[in-house]
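Record PDZ domain-containing protein, 367 aa.
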Amino acid sequence: MVKLNRLSLACILGVLLLSSGFWADFLASLVRGLLPISEETGQPDSTKQTKQPLANCHVETSRPAILTIFAGAEIGTGSIVSSDGLVLTNEHVVREVGSRGEIHARQWGGTLYKGQVLATNATHDLALVKISTKEPLPTIAFAKPEEIQSGQGVCALGSPRAITGVLARGKLIGTRGTSDLKSAILLQPGNSGGPLLNQQGEMIGVNKSIWLSETGENVGLSFATNVVTTTQFFEQNKSKSVPTESPIADHVTPLPLPSKPLDFNPPVIAELPYKTDSPYRPYPSQPSESGAHLGAIVDERTLVIQIVEPESPAEQAGLNAGDRLIKVNNQPLERLEDLKAFLATKRDRATFTVSRDNKPQDVTVEF
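=>
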């Protein structure tokens, strides 16, 4: 029997591998297994983008508990947190009418109410309002603080342009020094006081401000009072009663509220220090209607979606505030007129290519 030492065996094996191309083929097979395969060519396709799912947050059950708040000239959002009509919102939303002042409210679905401010906390920008109801109202539950994690998907429901129940979706980044929650989510004037929700539709915070760039642009970062502070405020003030000298009207009372969405474009506050957070008042970049056919309001300069209208084709397809429209049916979109011209053709379906998180993604919309 011939005995081979380790060096001889290694040399023989090396010759076999090199002569047959075994090593190169083996590595190539490993690489091919790690890359997606293009359906058209059968070759690795490292540029193809997979659709990134956005949080849904049980919007179908959360949305009925959302109110548009009208307090003097201010328009904001409220969350119904008790079935007898207790509502959480921002202090700056009701500041004009003052503590114990009267507000008007419109629920998702159109029911109208009068309400009254029970308590405010300017430090944390919270307010508790009581609306009158003869029937139990749908509510939003508080999330468990220990289950809140950085990086989780979040949703915001609000009333930009006085459209009740507008959905925006994003990601929780973390907290800042004041323990406020910081999220990558594009909010607008009218979102003030609305809930920041986890994927189970539970409130993890109350939205109150956005971050502006040095030029006053909304960069898609927002802040919310955390659920611990919010719950403490609610528990401390929920037993306060409405003064008898200023009764709340019965529910479903006709009120002087707008019958259609407002063109809510407040002026830029020149003295506001930029590169800071703002209570949704500056609006330097005016969005324009893209047409009811899509159900989105788009910035005319950047083609970034600002607002996705509830139950619209855009929302049902998964388009989100912050998405930048790049193409439609593989045709470039360079200006708002290009989008309007396409929508005027009244197609039954279209595939929009959007930039989301700086990555291209296709979204099919059925009209």
